Each structure stands twice: as C-alpha cells, then as structure tokens.
Amino acid sequence: MSYQVLARKWRPNDFSEVVGQEHVVQALCNSLDQNKIHQAFVLSGTRGVGKTTIARILAKSLNCEVGLDSKPCHECSTCLSVAEGSFMDFQEIDAASSRGVDDTKQLLETVMHMPSSSRYKVYLLDEVHMLSTQSFNMLLKTLEEPPEHVIFILATTLPEKIPATVLSRCLQFNLKNLTNKQLTDRLCFILQEEDIDFDLMAIEQIARAGRGSLRDSLTITDQAIAFCEGRLSDSEVAAMLGTLPSDNVLKLLRDIANGDSKSLLASLNEINQLSVDYLRLMDLLLETIQLLSFAKVSDEILEEIDLNKEEALSLLDNLTEEDLQLLYQIGLIAKRDMELAPSLSGGFDMALLRMVSFIPNQPDQSKKKVNSSKAEHVDSGLQKEESNLERTKKEVQEAGTPIQQQSTNYESEELKDINLDISAKNWKEIFDQLNLDPGTKQLASHCYFIRADETVIYLSMPDEKLNVFSGKHRKQLQDALTEFFGIPCNLFLEAGVFSDESPNQIKEEEKMKELKNAKKEIEDDPNVKSLVEAFGAKVIESSIEPRTEK
Asked: 95 and 58 in one domain?
C-alpha cells in the first residue's frame, strides 16, 4: 500500500477527535442531539484548522444509518461512503473553480431532488467567497426558503467577502487558530502512534512554524521525517526550517542582556555561514522575547512556555520588563525595515547590534529602580549656574556615597539608577539648555517626547525629519542629554507623532502669539488710530515684527 500523508491518515473521524475547536463542536453536537438542525452553516478560519473535516463529520452524523446523533457509528455504508468521499448525497463543490452563474444554476437545480438514500442532501461549498455577485444572488433565494431535506455548509477563509444578506441566513462559526501547545500535544501523540522518535524541542519548532494550522504542521512533520535520519532532532529540524534551535536564540538574547558585543558578533558570523531564513529567525526571536515578557508578569506561565527553563530564568534575572519591551519594539521595527537593507542578513545583524547598543546594560548587578528617597530627581528649576555634574555629585552625596569615588565613574549603582526627571511638560525647557550645534538643534527641535524609563529616553520624529536625522545628529543629541543629566543616557527614536508639542512647535506657537500681540498693540495705538481715521491709512501686517527685548 502506498504511503499516506499524516494530514490524511490522522484526519478526525468524529467530533471527539477535533482539536482546538470546542466552541464549534459543542454547538453542533447539541444541535444534533436535540434534533435542532439549522438550514445553513458558515465555517470560517485559516487553512488547515478543520473546516472541511467538521463539514464531513456533520454530514456523517446527519445521515448515519444507526440514527441522527453527534456520534456516528463509522461502520454503516453511509459513514464509510462519506469517509471515502463517494456518498451521493454529500457534494463537495470548489467554489473557486465553479463560481459562474451557470455553475450555480446547475447546482440549484439539483437541490429540489430528494436524497437518494439518506435523510439530508448536504452541500459543502468550499472557498465560497470566490463566488461571483450574481451567483450569491441566485444562492440567496434558496437559502431563504430551502427544502427541508437540504443542508448548506459554506466554508471560507475570508468571511468578510460573503454578502451580509447571505451571512444573516446562516449559523456562523469562526474556527480558531490552534495554540502552539495544542499543536505540540497533537503532533507528539501522532508521532508516538507512528513509533517515530523525536525531541520535544523539535516538535515545538514545527508547531511554531505551523502558525496555528494543524494541516500545515503535519505537512512540515512529513518533511521533517523525510529530512531527518531516524530521529526528529532539534538541530536537524532547525536546519530544515532555515532557523536556529531555541537554545541558540536564547544565547543571542543572553549576549544582548550581558552587553557582550564580541560574543554576539561571533554568533552572528556563525549564523551567516548557515542557510537561514532571516525573516523567520526574526519571528522566532520576537516570539521568544514575547514568552519571556509573559513569564516576567506571571511565574505560572514559565512552567508552560516551550523554552529551556534554566536559560529562561537566567535571562529573566538580567532583563527588566522595560528591557524586554525595548527589545521587542526594536525587533518589530527592524523586521519592517529588513527588506530595505542591502541584505536580509545585514538587516538582522544590525537589528541585534542595535539591541545591544540601546539596552542599558548592568552586567555585574541586577537592575532595579531606586526609591526617590535614595536619589533625588533632577530638578529643572535649579539655577543654571550649577553645573549638571555638580548636581549629580550633590545627589550621590545625599545618598551617602563618597563623592570622590563617584565623580567620574558612571558605572556606580547610584548614578545608573537615578530616574530622569523629564516629561512632555519640561522637555522644551530641557531641550533649550542642551549643547547642540545649530544644524543638529534645528533637526532635533522636531522631536516629540514620549517617555523616559530609567536612563532610556524615548523620542519620536515625523517620518520626513527622521530620514535625515543621521547617526551623527543622533549621537550628538544623546551625548548632550548625557552631559545635561550627568549620567549615561540612551536615546531611542522612532517615526511618528506621539505627543502634543515639540520644541519647534512650541517655539512657532510662541512666535505666533507674540506676533498677534504686536498686531493688537499697533491697532490699539492712539496715533495709529488717528492716522487711519484721518487719512484712511492701512496697516501692512507683513511688516509687523514682535519687539525683541535686549
């Protein structure tokens, strides 16, 4: 007998075997057991989640010779015929290839005929969204008043393309994507039944690659069986998928967390020697960061995530919630821009180097915020004559740390943990005091303040300004902020406008306000009024300039 692919061999035969669609199964089983059968159903969802399978099980349950029940016998001629695809009263129609008016007309002509040997005639219209508008209009009348012996099942991946008039006459079930755990459990069960040896981490990789589709996951499993020799190992499955084993991804994150640029660069050079799908690798990196973020919030989740527990715990000790959010955001932006890079590998490498550059690294100590009672916030209202470095010295001294030791060492615990006193309200005041060259200051004046997390300052710029805000300008702005606050500051810039006002916008608004006041002052001047009344004089507004105080 020829080899049968896993997706066909392990297709569910009844509702109890359907994975991950309990909300659909429960509704259909109750309808069958109570003999309350609707005239039409819409099954929507992505590929490989069970739409056709559920339709076949429903047809089998409706026409089982033992009786109408949610648990068909699987032994009668009707059940066997449906399973083999040869049952006369169950028609599967591909709406993508039979979408014309003539095809629909021919179909509807058969609807009026009674079933040949069963209770119901069941019509499964797969990819029903591909039908033409005229075909939908023809089908609509039949759905409104169908014969009692006819059941319609409409399957689609794009329910939004089905007319609302059709949807309103059907019971709608949206099939969910399966979770990685559901896929992993099902694949492990099938491989055990098939007596195939495997690594759990390899199956978890396949589950992630399946992206919620059981059929896709089983197809990848078939490929892995053919690729691997005897055992589905983590490394071989990773090589087949063009990605990295999960432990290698955790190593990349460990290098980033430790600020070890040399080790990270060495790892990237090794990756470049492999045939790696960098977009998929970036997805895997982002998924790993996401899992770590979840585990940071809840310890219970740590027991459920498909990661090396020891490595994960080590990373959670070295990365704060803010760090993980920053890494995730950098990764998302990098994935969007990777195809703009000279090569995907270069785009990926630069993204990881960006992560290690922006993350505030503290390799020898855990990262934690200090209380405001231990280190004072930087006060924007202090006298300008007091230098920023002296203010930092003062804060450290008040915290009880010797000044001599801390005056030039930015690696101290106290300096690193000072929370920056910066907000959207005082951003303009701080910006005006920064030591910037005219060109950089003009460009940077379009920055909008978002937030500050410890020593990381998040700013945004309009797209057209960000494109010309080069690394030189960015570095000068970051250095100026470091000089102002007296502690190393990390700058994170992104495109968009996320607050109300930038320094440039505030300056323009102040200028307009001054101009308006100047116009009003001239108009209210008694001498000007007398000239206007006596000679019909007119004030030229373009000539008005606000008075500058010297």
From this structure: yes
Q: Give the per-residue pLDDT at 190.
A: 92
Supply the Cα-derived Rg of the chain in whole angstroms. 34
- Rounded average pLDDT over 236-264: 83
Q: Per the domain annotation, does 375 fall within a domain?
A: no
Of 418, 480, 415, give the one whose Cα is nearest residue 444: 480
Distances (CA, A) of 260 to 269, 323, 361: 14, 16, 9
- Domain containing 142: what range? 6-174
Average confidence (pLDDT) over 278-302:
81
Residues 6+ apart with CB under 8 A from 58: 28, 32, 41, 122, 151, 153
Going by C-alpha positions, the residue among 243, 255, 234, 248 that lies closest to residue 315 is 255
Buried b vs exposed e over 2-19: b needs ≥16 C-beta within 10 Å?
A: eeeebbeebbbbbbeebb
Q: What is the mean pLDDT of the chain?
A: 79
Residue 370 lies in a domain: no
Instruction: Count other C-beta atoms under 10 Å from residue 60's C-beta.
Output: 25
- Tokens describing residue 4: 């049968």
Q: Which of 81-90, 242-251, 260-269, 283-292 bottoms out in mean pLDDT, i.e. has the lowest? A: 242-251
